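Model it.
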Amino acid sequence: MKIQGLNRLLILLFTTFVISCVCADEEQDLITVIQSSTGIVQKCNACQRLGIVGTVRSAPALAALLAGEERTSHAARYALESMPCPEADTVLIEALAKTSGLVKAGIINSLGTRRDRTAVPTLIKLLSDPDIQVVASAITALGRIAGPEVLAVLNMVKIDSSLVLQTPLNEAFLMCAEALVSSGDKKTAYEIYEKIYESKAPQYFRVAAYRGLILTSDEKKALKLVEKGLKGKERSSLTASLQMAGELKGENATKALSKLLPKLSPEIQCRFIDALVQHDGSSVLEALLSIADSRNPDVRIAVLKAMSRVGNDSAVPLLLKSLASSKNVEQESAREALIRLQDKNSTKLIAENLSKIEGLTKLEVIRILGLRRDVSAIPILLKLAEDTDESIRITSIQSLAMLANEASSGDLVTLLLRAKTESQRSEIEKALALAGTRSTNKDQCAAPVVAALAGTDVTGKCALLRVCGNLTGSTALNALREGIKNNDAEVQGTAIRSLASSHNPEAIPDQLAYAKNTANQTYRVLLLRGCMKMIDEDVNIPAGRKIEICKDVMSVSDRFEEKMLVVSCLSKLNTIESLKVLETFLSDNSLKKDAATAILKIGKSFDASQTDAVKSVLQKANEVMNASRNKTGN
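Modeled.
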C-alpha cells in the first residue's frame, strides 16, 4: 500500500512538472508576442491569455505596455489585475507616474480591484490630481481597499459642488461601511450610513444607507427603523424598509411586522404584503385576514394572492366568499389560492361549505376539488356525481377524472352503470380511462370493469367495452376478445371499435387477425387504421417489429388510403429493411411515386459507404421520380 501511495505521489509530481513546463513555454511565447511589432489585436489577445497563465515573469513585459497605446495598456492592466503576485502591484503603482487621463484612471481601478494596501499612500496623493476623473477613480479604489486610514482620508475629501465626485465618494463610503460590518465594527458602519442618509445624496445612496442602518442595528431598533420608514413619507427610507421587512427573520420580527400591517396606509399595505409573506408563522395569516375586508380593492387582491403562499384552512371562508365576487381579478386570486392551500383539512372544509353555495360558484368549487389533486375529495365527488342537477353531476365526474386511480375504479364502474344520460356516461368513461393511465397495476384497474360485464344490459356492456378499449393489460384485452364473440351485434360492434382504438401493443395481432377475417369493410378499415396509428406513435415498438406489422397490413389491406399509412410509417424508419419493403411498392402504379419519395427521404440518412443494394434501391427511386416528371412535363 505504501508503494502504491508513493507511485501516486510520483505521478502527481510528474504531472505537475509537465503542466508547469507547458505553461512556462506558453507564457514565454505570449511574452514574445507582446514584445514584438505585431498588431494591437494580437497583443491584446496575448495579454488576455497572460491574465490566466501569466506569472511574475510576465510583469516586466506587461509593464512596458502600460504607458503605451491605450488599448494595449488596458489589456496589460487587466492581465496584471488578475495575477496573484506582489510584483503586479509594484508595476501598476510605478506606471501611475508615467500615464494620464483614462489610462491612468484605468490603472487606479485595477489597484482598487486588487485591494492592495501598499497602494494607499499613492492613491491618497492622487486625490489632489488636477484631472477630476483620476480623482474619482482614486476615491473608488480607496473605497474598495477600505480600512481606518482610508476612512479618515475620505472624510477629509472636499467635493464642493462637483457632481462627478459625489457618486464615487458615496460609493466609497458604502464600501468602507460594508468592510466594517464584515470586521464586526457595526458602530462605525452605522455612523457612516447615518451620515449618507442625512446628506443630500441621490436616492439610490440614501436607500442603501437606510438599509445599512437597519442591518447594523439590534433587532428592536431595526424593527423601529422599519416601522418609521413604512409610516413615514420619505421615499428612500420607505423603499429600504420594504426591502428589509422580508429579510428580518425570527419569531419576534415576524410578530412585530404582522402587527404593523393593519396600521399602514392601503397603498403601503399592498407593497408590504409581498415582504410579509416571506415570513413563517400564524401571526402573518392573522394579520392578512384582519385586512381582508379592506375597502381598497388592491389590498383585497393582494391578500387573496398572499393566501396561495401562507393560507390554510382558516382562509377557506374568505376565499369562498371572494370566489363568488363580481370582480374577475378577485375571483381568479381566490381560485388560485383555494387550489394551492396545502393542509389536508382545507379539502374537507371546502367540501363542507358546498351546501351553502349555489349556481356557477358551486360548479367552480367542485372543479377546484379536482384541481387540488387531493384524493380525499374522491368520496365527496362520487356523491356529487349522483346529484339531481346534471351540470353538478358532469362537473363532479370531470373532477373525479383528475383524481381517479385503480383504487377508485370500482366506484366509477358503479357510477357508470347508474348513469342517467349519455353525456354523463361519456365523462365517466373518460375518468376510468385516466384512472388506467395513472394506475401502476393495469389489470387491477381493469378488474372491476371486466367483472361488471356479466351482470349488465347491452348499454352497460357497450360502455364497459369502450372503457376496456382505453385500458392496457391482458385483462381488458381478453374482455374485448370475448365481446367480439358476443351474439348481440351492438355489443360485438362496440368491442371491435374499441379494439381498433386500443393503445395496447398486445392488441396488434388481434387487430390484424380480425381485419383479415371480417367481411365488414368498415371494421377492417378501423382495425387497420388503429393498428397503423399505434405503431406509428409508439416509440417503444422496435423498428424491426414495425416493419413486420407493415407487411402484414399490406397483405390485408385492399384500399389505397391504408397502404399510404404504411408508406408514411416506413418513411420514418431509417433502416435498410424499410428501404427493401418500400422497394416492393415501386411496381405498384398507385404507390410507386410516394414509395420513391419515401425511399429518397430515407436515403439521406445513409452516408457515402452505402451498400450496393442501397444504391440500387435509390437509383430505382430516382428513375421513378424522373419518369413522373417527364410524364407531367416538369
